User: Fold this.
Amino acid sequence: MRSRYTAYAIGDEAYLLASWHPSTRPDSLDLAADPVKWVGLSIESCTDGQAADSTGRVRFVARYKAGGRAGRLAEDSSFVREDGRWYYVDGEVA
Assistant:
């Protein structure tokens, strides 16, 4: 989760797509189309996602600034591990 937040913060679209599960991954991203400055991440909870798990959930709050206004994104994200690598599957905005 933290690596994906960092990728959003620095605009690394390639990493975001590579860490997104193929079953839900969009064809492309255009982070420049909607400029957002990400200013903080708080992990609220984690369920599973340990070495012996194949799935995990992360609840987080990410703070940002866009158009001179502060905002926050709260999401409950699901991840799956395949071939030893974690992939973002989807998220429910809270």
About this structure: The chain has two helices and four strands. The beta strands are 37-48, 55-66, 69-82, 85-93.
